[in-house]
Amino acid sequence: MGQIHVLPAHIQNKIAAGEVVERPSSIVKEITENSLDAGATVIEVFIKNSGMESIKVVDNGRGIDYEDRSLIFERHATSKLDTAYELFEIRSLGFRGEALASIGAVAKVSLQSMSEGSTPFKMVISGGDYETDTVWHERPGTIIEIKDLFFNTPARLKYIKNLRTETGKIIDIMQRMALNNPDVSFRLVFDGKDRFKTTGSGNLKEVINILYGTQVSSNAIPVSGTSPDYTIDGFIVRPEVTRSNRNYINLSINNRHVRHFKLSQSIINAYHTLQPKDKYPLVFLNITMDPKLIDVNVHPSKIEVKLSKEAELLKLMEDTVKNGLMETQLIPEVEHKK
Length: 338
Ligand code: ADP
Ligand code: MG
What we know:
The protein is an alpha+beta fold and 338 residues long.
């Protein structure tokens, strides 16, 4: 008799959850990305006890069709990808259809949604099992609440030791979301206390000001650069304003936050002689490119990417920042009392 069998869906989802939902901040990232993909212009995030007790996201996006409700928490179920061809041309933030299935496997999730002209609904899933499925009052958009994270995965629960660290990571993710989407109003609330709120006016400098204050925003200089395949634009901050780590090098590609060691390095190189050795710059830059030139499917978190014309982009990045810095040397720094 054969020994091999396909694992049941709830076990498959628990395994996938290990990669997709590592910690509260990964959930915040996945859920708000879904709101952005749904075209939301207002996204409110309410966190209780650093996300371990509750993560609630309310959006005004296009909502989910009533007919689709049975697929929402199924693995590899997505509305964002139809053909394998599209996998090489990703335009949405999500596409793997894994987040909600994974989250539903390791937490208690309640989801309410309504799309235009469709019946509003509510569903609750706990550790992979559906609990109720009742019709809910009308409101366009989606409300999702994740409670008791990792209640059925004790090892993962133990791994979340320091709630302060988790809060910091949630702030980090939300700030990057806000920076990458100045035309969306984001609100972040911890235990009933507002942390920040952006207006959605589309003005990146205003977002920088709300998040980092005037010392940073008033020293931010607009830059832009183009090469045959890439366009870079955004702000670099004068070299006199420094930070002691690389976290303030904000990079996004087609408005998706990315981490790319060589790109960060090319920015640090451009600032090279203008900053002390142990100090790092602040920049807020978005790269626009044909989605065919980038592979975002390297890891489930989609933060790491592979580029096909890397050398061209690295050069453009260093040149763009250098040109911007040359201009900053001509304009006096704006002083601020600490
Ligand atoms: P993915 O984002 O990769 O498609 P998810 O598991 O994150 O996979 O979500 C599954 C599907 O549920 C999405 O493709 C989308 O159709 C729907 N969905 C999830 N969140 C929202 C939301 N806030 N608004 C509208 N649709 C949503
Ligand atoms: Mg998603």
